[in-house]
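User: Some background: our group keeps a shared notebook of sequences we're curious about, and every so often someone picks one and asks for a predicted structure to add to the entry. Today it's my turn. The entry only has the sequence so far, pasted here. Could you supply the structure so I can complete it?
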Amino acid sequence: MIQNIVISRLLKKHIYLFKSTLFFSVLMGAFILVSCSGDSGSGGGTTGTTPSNLVISAVVVGTNAQNPNGDGSGTVNFNISATNATSYKILLGNGEVKEVTNGVLTYTYTASGTNTYVIYVSAYKGTSFVSTSTSIVVYVAPTVLWSDEFNVDGVPDSSKWGYDLGAGGWGNNEPQYYTNRPENIIVQNGVLKINTIKESYSGSNYTSARILTKGKFSFKYGKVEIRAKLPVGGGTWPAVWMLGDNIGTVGWPACGEVDILEEIGNQPNINHASLHSPGRSGNTPDTGTVAVVNGNSEFHIYTADWRADSIKFYVDNQLYYTFVNTDNFPFNQNFFLIINCAIGGNFGGSIDPNFVSSTFEVDYVRVYN
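Assistant: Of course. Here's the predicted structure to add to the notebook entry:
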């Protein structure tokens, strides 16, 4: 009995050793087979000498001290070389793949803003190859979707702007009457001028102007940039702002409102950025302010960068307020633009009794993708 048990155990041990040796031989054979086809820098191959000495040169066009990530064109010149290589495959980091035989490629990235791309390159000779990677930072200037440079003297471009006309308080107990008269609104010397005037007109004691792109242009997400010089005088209330396209069906504030540039003359040189939405309208908590030195005597650039997850507000490229955007807010639909100058009312406040007239000047309005 004991002898039989010993023999049985010896047989099992030899069978186990045999199986292990066989498995190891098969595993090594598979490894050798895979290695011959080359991967991530290994090669050997079945079609000749494996490429080696793989080098990538990636030069972003227009790079200099002032533009470290390029001139905004998004163009990159690739030069790739490897000993014994006959072709190259380039993964450009944005989902695109290019193949070249001479190692030379000029490629243009299109995603706006400053983006980092990890580039993977493989050099081939037959099925043998070596691979390496590098990273580049590329700046692509935003594309202008719509703009008005106000370069043609006369009335505002009717293909871009319509008018809100009349009085009635405009929801804020404002006393002005909006007109389309050249006395109140005109383009001169490359600048839009909205003149707010103390005068008796159609039952109102003040006149001004309000233009809007409703029915002519609206957009969802993008960067709005305004270069403007603000009026002087207690009670003045210049603004560049946006309303949701659906205001006609859902009303305000359900449509949403985004105030990009807003100042009141009783608090000069302070810009307000505000967002109004259901339950957060009127005296909204979604507001940021920033001091703008000489805002009434010099032109400054006011910007809103509107995205699905945030709306960021800048003056002269300096960020001062970030609103966290979500699907719970109405800021994920098309909006149109408005430029106006009110006076007095709930936000404008008391009007200086010595006020006669003042001018709100806009050099340009640009909307980028």
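Suggested note for the entry: Helices lie at 2-37, 247-250, 345-348. The chain has three helices and 24 strands.
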